[in-house]
């Protein structure tokens, strides 16, 4: 489709500080009194910049009939056209352009951008003859045309970069809004459910009602974990990763104990054996480590055997903090092992367990954020064992 609005081309050429100097130099080198940068399309010839000492009458934005110009031909063959005395030239003495505009001398160099796009021409004209036989003239003007083309390319790249940066900033703002709204809109009704369950529990005594309230509380705990996992997934994939705030913690063992007790309350059918020997002064984010453990415990309860206890160990080993969790039951299928710490991986491996498959992904991300690792082994004899390790500074007491 032919271009109808050339304001961007006029602005692009107008913003190149070197163009006025180039046009002045073209006039000086050629001895001609009119020089211009023209935008040439398949249907239009538009002057973008002009240096006129012969009152040709063309200003920036001015238009010539394309077919009346030689630039129409240059656009097709991409070669310079130069003649210094049209009335004595074997070809241009009868050409319509010199006759139409009363030209004797003419030079036009194509301006071609890096991607091969023909932008237009750098040209000079005069009504009197000019000596243009020196090859250095064409070479110099060709360099000027290339300089203009490179400036246009630089402007295009800069514009694309600014646009991409603006889009990235806007996307970042939308991501932050999305995460904030998601957290608020999901947490608010869940808080109401929990408060209502607590209020009702204080007022009912029959066993059936209390059982229902217990189920509501258990479900709200699971929903809370899911919400936090979704929010962390959004932060991790849409933002810059799951944030951690590491500090020296003297009561990490108590935090891990409370996490275990919460899971025991939520899953009374599960059996646990724990060995927690956590020193004071562990350098970590205790809330995130609690979340890591909660996700591992929830995974063990969901996928392990209820007939065998889940074994939790936490201890210092050298300069590392180690948290291991072992459950019995069917080993993890080999097809699932490479996907285990990827989000939504269960469906890819044909698993049908409930949940989004985010728990282990987020646990792994928390370990990574602590410059640590989360690994797993699984076989029928020893069970499935997840081991989280991360470097820590210890303050022994």
Please give a structural write-up.
- Its EC number is 2.7.13.3.
- It catalyses: ATP + protein L-histidine = ADP + protein N-phospho-L-histidine.
- Keywords: Kinase, Phosphoprotein, Transferase.
- It comes from Pseudomonas atacamensis.
- This protein has 397 residues and is an alpha+beta fold.
- The chain has three domains: 7-161, Beta-Lactamase (2-Layer Sandwich), CATH 3.30.450.40; 169-238; 247-391, 2-Layer Sandwich (Heat Shock Protein 90), CATH 3.30.565.
- Helices cover 46% and strands 20% of the residues.
- The strands form three sheets. Strands 3-2-1-6-5-4 form a six-stranded antiparallel sheet. Strands 8-10-11-13-12 form a five-stranded mixed sheet.
- A hairpin with a 4-residue loop joins strand 1 and strand 2 (45-52).
- Helix 6 packs across helix 10, helix 7 (252-266) runs parallel beside helix 8 (286-303) and helix 8 runs antiparallel to helix 10 (359-369).
- The protein is rod-shaped, with a radius of gyration of 38 Å.
- Residues 352-356 have low confidence and may be disordered.
Strand line-up of the largest beta sheet: 3-2-1-6-5-4
Structural class by SSE content:
alpha+beta
Count of helices? 10
CATH superfamily of the largest domain: GAF domain
Number of strands: 13
Overall CATH class of the largest domain: Alpha Beta
Q: Percentage of helical residues?
A: 40-55%
Protein name: histidine kinase
Enzyme class: transferase
GO molecular function, one term: kinase activity
InterPro entries: BphY/WalK/GraS-like, GAF, GAF-like_dom_sf, HATPase_C_sf, HATPase_dom, His_kinase_dom, HisK_dim/P_dom, HisK_dim/P_sf
